[in-house]
Design goal:
The protein is of the alpha/beta class. It has 3 domains: 47 residues, Up-down Bundle (Transferase, Pyrimidine Nucleoside Phosphorylase, Chain A, domain 3), CATH 1.20.970.10; 264 residues, Nucleoside phosphorylase/phosphoribosyltransferase catalytic domain (Pyrimidine Nucleoside Phosphorylase, Chain A, domain 2, 3-Layer(aba) Sandwich), CATH 3.40.1030; 89 residues, Pyrimidine nucleoside phosphorylase-like, C-terminal domain (Aldehyde Oxidoreductase, domain 3, Alpha-Beta Complex), CATH 3.90.1170. Helices cover 44% and strands 13% of the residues. A 4-stranded mixed β-sheet has the order 1-4-5-12, with helices on both faces. It has a 3-stranded antiparallel β-sheet with strand order 6-10-8, sandwiched between helices. Strands 9-7-11 form a 3-stranded antiparallel β-sheet. Helix 8 packs antiparallel against helix 9 and helix 12 crosses helix 13.
């Protein structure tokens, strides 16, 4: 087979066979496909799409490009569970939910990724923690999951190596927003992790990769169908990404918000609703509770009694981070030198926010990437963002910018102000419920 002929075939809208897909994935893994060929293939899929059969084949080929995990030999006394998000602005739910699910009896080998485009990545947030190992070998991963119950890490060289290369190239070639590529990327990692159940957080709105409701439903349906075909119980919740999720945006600042959330010191209602809803659904899928509602109560209790914070602290320490991060985060999380408020041009209500532009403002500040090999500044970001329909004034800024220099802070302020709309009256049609729908193959739970 000749790679460029297969790329041409997909470019022209023809269906690739399973052997052809396996050949391309093999070249992706071995390096025989050049970066230009990988980018061309990704662009061809972006424009031409894939059939359900092609997508399932791509997922399996990428999963089988490396090792797969089997947890039976460890005699775990609970199900192996995971959650994944399609990405958002200020989305630190994985950092919170992994420890909370472990506190409720699940085992969570969470294979996460880095930032894509305008959204942040879970691994980039964890890299803000001094000493934390985001890429342990599989022996260490098994040990941490067995002993602690949760390990949030990145793709090791053994797990789905084809996806690791494709993931980085998608980020810098404007091919992120492709349903087949997103489906295969997510599920190749998750299926390789040997899961019993998976819950997906599919974002919809201005800050999501799939900004419309129809696109989000299509992505959720694709992921649920391919996962189910591969024997993993999966459902998806569609959640709002028309505004920043939670209070903070930026890697170190989101770790800080995670700590305060798990310690019950600062709980943003929207962030809590998404976290608890996903957790309840996952405990239900894993058979730990009889309903998603019961699962939500268990997750909320694990936050309120502090057990989620304990599991987070143990995970961090076991993976090389500071043992006292939760108690003394100020000793370990780097803080930017310049912290300034984002003052509105006029007093009024924040009625609209372009969340994507907020994410890009973080990238411009150094908190994200424009190239796959670019280093990230973990200290910069935005703190204490107000919610939509909140009143803003000279006494109540929209947020606080954390930057390295005054000039960078000033530019970030301008970018945030451009992304926000202030009005004299609050918007009547803004929904308070940020969990829109449930997508699953079963009919046990009705859509919201």
């Amino acid at each position: 087979m000749i790679p460029q002929e297969l790329i041409r075939k997909k470019r022209d809208g023809l269906e690739l066979t399973l052997p052809e897909i396996e050949f391309l994935v093999g070249g992706l893994t071995s390096g025989q496909l050049s970066e230009g060929q990988v980018a061309a293939f990704a662009m061809a899929v972006y424009f031409q799409g894939m059939t359900a059969k092609e997508c399932a084949g791509l997922t399996r080929a990428m999963m089988n490009s490396g090792d797969t995990l089997n947890w039976k030999k460890l005699d775990l006394n609970g199900p192996v569970l995971d959650k994944h998000s399609t990405g958002g602005i200020g989305d630190k739910v994985s950092l919170m939910l992994g420890p909370l699910v472990a506190a409720c009896g699940g085992y969570v080998p969470m294979i996460s990724g880095r930032g894509l485009g305008h959204t942040g990545g879970t691994l980039d947030k964890l890299d803000a923690i001094q000493g934390y190992q985001t890429a342990p070998d599989l022996v260490k991963l098994r040990q941490v999951v067995k002993e602690v119950g949760v390990a949030i890490i990145g793709q090791t060289s053994e797990l789905a190596p084809a996806d690791r290369r494709l993931y980085a190239i998608r980020d810098v070639t404007a091919t992120v927003e492709s349903i087949p590529l997103i489906t295969a990327s997510i599920l190749s990692k998750k299926l390789a992790a040997g899961l019993d159940a998976l819950v997906m957080d599919v974002k919809t709105g201005s800050g999501a990769f799939m900004p419309t409701h129809d696109q989000s439903v299509a992505l959720a349906s694709s992921i649920v169908a391919v996962a189910d075909e591969n024997g993993v119980k999966t459902s998806a919740l569609l959640t709002d990404m028309n505004q920043v999720l939670g209070l903070n945006v930026g890697n170190g600042l989101e770790v800080l918000e995670t700590i305060k959330y798990l310690k019950n010191e600062k709980v943003d209602p929207r962030l809590d609703q998404v976290t608890v809803s996903l957790g309840g659904e996952l405990l239900f899928l894993g058979g730990l509770v009889s309903s998603a509602e019961e699962g939500m109560t268990r997750i909320r209790n694990a936050r309120e009694d502090g057990s989620g914070a304990e599991y987070f602290a143990r995970m961090v320490a076991t993976l090389g981070g500071p043992a006292n991060l939760v108690e003394h985060w100020d000793h370990h999380l780097e803080r930017a030198a310049v912290i300034v408020p984002v003052m509105p041009a006029q007093n009024g209500y924040l009625v609209k926010m372009d969340a994507r532009e907020i994410g890009l403002a973080l990238v411009h500040l150094g908190g994200g990437r424009t190239r796959a090999d670019q280093k990230i500044d973990y200290a910069v970001g935005f703190e204490n963002f107000v919610d939509l329909n909140d009143y803003v004034s000279q006494q109540q800024p929209i947020a606080f910018v954390h930057a390295r220099t005054n000039s960078e802070a000033e530019q970030a302020i301008l970018n945030i102000l451009k992304a926000c709309v202030i009005a004299e009256e609050p918007e009547k049609n803004i929904q308070s419920n940020c969990v829109y729908d449930r997508i699953a193959l079963d009919q046990d739970v009705e859509e919201d």
